[in-house]
Write a structure and sequence with these properties.
Number of strands: 12
Distance between the termini: 51 Å
Number of helices: 21
Radius of gyration: 35 Å
């Protein structure tokens, strides 16, 4: 799995190769110094040769400076390689997410995707940096130090060998136990991010209902879950450090004890003993580095799996092999359509839907909560694919169109309107990036957005905060309608997008549609009958089925649900509403 992700190192391969090369150079320099230090003691100090001490000391200084240069370059190259790898990985994830269908996003959840783009990629970056530097330095240092130790005295060096093998077995057991905790901890991060995201996006509601304490408790529980899981993992891993230090001190004591006997017996020089002790520290510190690498790789393995899920996820909606690149007109046909959000659903959300909509016709869709009105229109521009049956736009099955072409010609104002940080013009040009100022103003006139925009301090250059925080719900809806009109669609879908607009403005918008875009097919979902009663036809939805189709007058005569709701909204029967009737 980790190997698959290494493909995203990309153009940072050279610095990725140079980093371990620099680390090897640094290790070689470090291994030379104990040899020179031993010579100083044996030939310089014991022999009273001051000139040799100075000469060898200068050599040690040069070697140390060269090692320092290698270390600095290794750090520089490693930082570039790791940061570049993380950048490529994050971009690849983001690109993959942009291709997701609504079904893919439903599967991962927004908070889970945020964790994968941030925490998980950061873990991979740290692991890659540590692997390039320590994973090269530690084993090379340990092997070279071991070889040098055996060259000096094989019997004393065997103490290292026993210690390394014993610690290696101990590390394997400990890290295997810690691994399962690290795999679980990132799911807890998803819960934490979800709590933060929900709270921040709904902060006005939280304050309006004085629910700050409830949200704090919810966040605290998510944070405590992460804490408890990390404590379990760290409690397991923390035993490594004292075990390592215990072995280090045991080795030093044993080497000092036996080495002293060898020095007395004149089978080992004092300088050689000092070199052995230095190599002892190098070997055991290298082993400690390796333990840190194993911990980081264990953590990154869990992150790698989560990142790989995103990268390998295939969109449930894809372009056909030879897509159609032109939508002839705005006619829409539902031919025995069924739809379910998942393959294992007990029953479909939409059942046997049959509708023919002529190009340029205005269609109202009305029904109770949960009657699948939104699900119906989401199928037209392939935000989801039908489970059974066929939907045709312009006489062609929507699955045969190029996705971008289809969605450019089927413009939708979603139930949850979203504006982005930028000027009014910037937001409008999401509909058409090449739209002129005049075209933007015309679209706003049709959507009745010009009324409030011209009263803003900077007019169409007024800055809109993220999410449209500095405009009202009705203003946001009208800007989103104008943005959709700018696409010059052949089918315009309004999913309850005038709910925050007063009835007078709603009527103006409908009039603008009739006079300015008469050839565009208009599909309007609404709760208010006044918003759809002037449509050419109205579809009444009930429990995922079509309960009735007709004009306002026809439905008043022939459809009980429509008639009773109309009476409730006009004051004739105040107790009737969609949710009670459907």
């Amino acid at each position: 799995m980790l190997r698959k992700l290494l493909h995203y190192v990309g153009k940072y391969k050279l610095v990725s190769i140079l980093t371990p090369a620099m680390m090897i150079g640094e290790v070689v320099c470090e291994m030379i110094i104990p040899v020179l230090m031993g010579e100083i003691v044996d030939r310089g100090v014991n022999g009273g040769d001051m000139s040799f001490i100075v000469q060898t000391g200068l050599k040690m200084l040069v070697v140390a400076l060269i090692g320092l240069a290698f270390g600095i370059l290794g750090g520089f190259f490693g930082a570039n390689a790791a940061a570049g790898f993380a950048k490529n990985l994050r971009k690849a994830e983001y690109d993959s997410i942009q291709k997701f269908s609504f079904a893919n996003i439903d599967h991962f959840s927004p908070s889970g995707l945020v964790t994968r783009l941030t925490t998980d990629v950061t873990n991979m970056q740290n692991a890659y940096m540590m692997t390039l530097r320590m994973a090269t330095r530690a084993p090379v240092s340990m092997i070279v130090a071991m070889v040098m130790s055996f060259r000096i005295n094989a019997r004393l060096a065997s103490i290292y060998l026993v210690a390394v093998v014993g610690l290696g077995i101990f590390l394997f057991i400990v890290l295997s136990r810690a691994n399962r905790y690290f795999h679980q901890v990132f799911d807890r991060y998803d819960e934490l991010n979800e709590s933060v995201q929900e709270n921040v996006s709904a902060i006005r509601v939280v304050k309006a209902y004085v629910r700050e304490d409830h949200e704090i408790d919810k966040f605290t529980k998510a944070a405590v879950n992460i804490y408890s899981m990390f404590v379990k993992a760290e409690t397991t891993v923390v035993t490594v450090a004292p075990a390592m230090m215990g072995v280090v001190y045991a080795c030093i004591i044993l080497i000092s004890w036996f080495g002293a006997h060898f020095v007395i017996q004149e089978t080992l020089t004092t300088g050689a003993l000092m070199s052995l002790l230095t190599y002892c520290m190098n070997i055991l510190m290298s082993l400690m580095m390796l333990s840190m690498i194993f911990v980081m790789i264990t953590m990154s393995e869990a992150s790698a799996g989560r990142i790989n899920e995103v990268l390998e996820a295939k969109s449930t909606i894809t372009n056909p092999v030879n897509p159609i690149m032109d939508v002839k007109d705005g006619s829409v046909d539902f031919d025995h359509v069924d739809f379910a959000y998942s393959s294992d659903a007990k029953e479909p959300v939409l059942k046997d839907i049959n509708i023919h909509i002529d190009s340029g016709e205005s269609i109202g869709i009305i029904g109770g909560t949960g009657s699948a009105k939104t699900s119906l229109v989401h199928l037209i521009d392939r935000l989801y694919d039908v489970t059974a049956g066929t939907i045709r736009v312009g006489g062609v099955d929507v699955r045969q169109y190029d996705l971008d072409t289809l969605r450019e010609k089927v413009s939708m104002v979603l139930q949850k309107n979203v504006l982005f940080s930028g000027t009014v013009y910037d937001n409008l040009r999401w509909g058409d990036k090449n739209a002129t100022d005049e075209e933007c103003r015309k679209a706003c006139e049709i959507a009745c957005a010009d009324e409030f925009i011209e009263k803003m301090p900077d007019g169409y250059n007024t800055w809109i905060e993220q999410g449209g925080a500095n405009v009202s719900g009705g203003q946001k809806q009208r800007l989103c309608i104008a943005r959709a009109i700018l696409r010059k669609p052949k089918v315009l879908i309004l999913d309850d997008s005038t709910s925050a607009v007063d009835t007078a403005t709603d009527a103006k918008i409908r009039k603008g549609f009739a006079t300015e875009i008469p050839d565009t097919t208009k599909i309007v979902i609404a709760q208010r009958i006044s918003s759809v009663q002037h449509c050419d036809r109205i579809v009444v939805m009930d429990d995922g089925r079509i309960n009735g189709i007709g004009t306002h007058e026809e439905l008043l005569k022939n459809n009980a649900i429509y008639r009773e709701v109309y009476e409730s909204q006009t004051g004739v029967n105040a107790e009737a509403d969609f949710d009670k009737l459907s």
